[in-house]
UniProtKB/TrEMBL annotation:
It comes from Lophotis ruficrista. PANTHER family: INSULIN-DEGRADING ENZYME-RELATED, NARDILYSIN. Residues 2-153 form the Peptidase M16 C-terminal domain. This is NRDC protein. Belongs to the peptidase M16 family. The gene is Nrdc_0.
């Protein structure tokens, strides 16, 4: 540690501190308020694969990192058991896989907006019925919205325990990657949450 501290001091101590707070772009609201956003785009893929991606633009969620509402929603959307979207679509032979979520950094989440995406890998038959597939996804999201999160604290606590176990028993990563990750966290979280802010769930707040 003494050697590392010496290196850091030698390399970085001459960088001037301008004393300015980090920039915020929270005043730039509704970046996707454009006719181009509310459209269906067809893209011809390079490989032979059919994929349907649905993206929602949301207010910035980074302030709720202790609750992680988008992680909670992605857990419900990505569930593969009985009663799930994917289970229904597989019975119809329309889909092979489904993923929903937000990367919580960079383009997907910042001080201006957050995006939430659901991506469905379709079969050839599913591609023929992609409108119906999209309709099923919207129906499921609407159902979650109507039922609300109040009855679902058990699910939130289950996610919390799983994430805590993954944090405590995580495999050792490359030191350079770990330092890079911590440096990113220093821009996003208070000091006490540098190590855990991007991984752990701390508070259940159904209103969020």
């Amino acid at each position: 540690l003494d050697t590392l501290e010496k290196w850091v001091t030698e390399i970085f101590s001459e960088i001037p501190n301008n004393g300015l707070p980090k920039p915020s772009f929270g005043h730039l609201t509704q970046p996707f308020d454009t006719p181009e956003f509310h459209k269906l785009y067809r893209v011809i893929p390079i490989r032979k694969v059919h994929s349907l991606s649905i993206t929602w633009a949301l207010p910035p969620q980074e302030q709720y990192y202790r609750v992680k509402p988008l992680h909670y929603i992605s857990w419900l959307v990505g569930h593969e058991g009985k009663g799930s979207v994917l289970s229904f679509l597989r019975k119809k032979f329309w889909a092979l896989a489904l993923y929903g979520g937000n990367g919580e950094t960079g383009f997907e989440q910042n001080s201006t907006y957050s995006v939430f995406s659901i991506s469905v890998t379709l079969t050839d038959e599913g591609y023929k019925h992609f409108y119906e597939v999209a309709h099923v996804v919207f129906q499921y999201v609407k159902m979650l919205q109507k039922r609300g999160p109040d009855k679902r604290q058990v699910i939130w606590e289950e996610i919390q325990k799983i994430e805590a176990n993954e944090f405590h028993y995580q495999e050792q990563t490359d030191p350079v990657d770990y330092v890079e990750s911590l440096c990113e966290n220093m821009q996003l979280f208070p000091k006490e949450d540098f190590l855990t802010g991007d991984q752990l769930l701390f508070e259940y707040k159904p209103e969020v």
